[in-house]
Structure formats: C-alpha cells, structure tokens
Amino acid sequence: MAVDVIWFDDQCTVAHFIMRGAWTWTEYEAARAQIRQMQEPCDNLVDHIYDMRQMTQLPPKALPNFSEAARSRHANSSGLVVFVGGGMLVRQLGSVFRRLAPPSAIELHFVETLEQAEARLLEQRPAHRARLRGDAASGSS
C-alpha cells in the first residue's frame, strides 16, 4: 500500500501517515479508516504527522480532498498537523488551506525531517491545546 499509518509513539498521541510513490485518495481513505479504528479506544487527543518524503506526486484534487479530510476528522484528532517533506507544492496547498479553513480548525506546520516534526509537535502542543480549551470554553457559553 502506498499510504500506511502507524502510531509514532507508544502513548498513541501521534498518528504517523507515510505516503510512498504515487499514492491515491483511495489508499489515503483506507489509512484514515485504519487510524479511526486505532483511535477508538483512546481518550486522548491525537496529532498527525504526514510523512511525504517518499512521495513522488500528489494525487489530483489535493485541496478539496484534504479539506474534506479536515472537516471529517475523528473527534479525538487535535487538528495539530505536521507535514514532513513534500516540497513547495505541499507548502503552497497548506497556505491556501489556511486561508480557506476556519481559524481554529487545523494548525499546519511544515518541516523536512521526522526529528523536526517531533520537535515541532512538542513545541506547539501546549499552546494548541490551550487554544482548543479556549474554543471549547467559549463555545459552551
């Protein structure tokens, strides 16, 4: 399969999607279904790493498909997302997505290595969680 998903850590707090070659949306959706099942027993929030270093190209209709994935994410998904590799096209899509998405929907970061991804998650997680709590608190009034 050209898209695999595994836990990045033993605490099940980071889903690690690995994109290889010319993957398809069908393969991505299968990986999303798999992580949804993996998340079911978890009551913690889950961040996502999309590792695109082995990808040769994005499938067609990337922006609408990633937008739909963001709208239909699992309740335990935090919305903190780090893309590893993928080049300028992935960064440009992220920039467009940021302008189209609601401000608190997804927080995207772009790095070149898994080590940088892990560091970025550790760095950004406290502030991101605080924003989520703030959104939840303001939504309940």
| CATH H level, superfamily name | STAS domain
Q: What is the class in the CATH system?
A: Alpha Beta
Average pLDDT figure: 86
Classify the fold: give the CATH topology.
Transcription Regulator spoIIAA
Distance between the termini: 45 Å
Number of helices: 4
Task: Give the DSSP E fraction (strand runs of 2 or more residues).
Answer: 25-35%
CATH architecture: 2-Layer Sandwich
Shape: globular
Lateral strand order in the biggest sheet = 1-2-3-4-5
Number of strands: 5
Q: Helical proportion? A: 40-55%
How many strands, what sense, and barrel or not for the largest sheet? 5 strands, mixed
Cα-based radius of gyration, to the nearest Å:
14 Å
Keywords:
Transcription Regulator spoIIAA; five-stranded mixed beta sheet; 141 residues; 26% strand; 5 strands; alpha/beta
Structure description:
The structure is a single chain. This protein has four helices and five strands. The protein is α/β, with parallel strands linked by helices and 141 residues long. The protein has a single domain, classed as STAS domain (Transcription Regulator spoIIAA, 2-Layer Sandwich), CATH 3.30.750. A five-stranded mixed beta sheet has the order 1-2-3-4-5, sandwiched between helices. The longest helix is centred in the last third of the chain and has 26 residues, at 114-139. It is globular, with a radius of gyration of 14 Å.
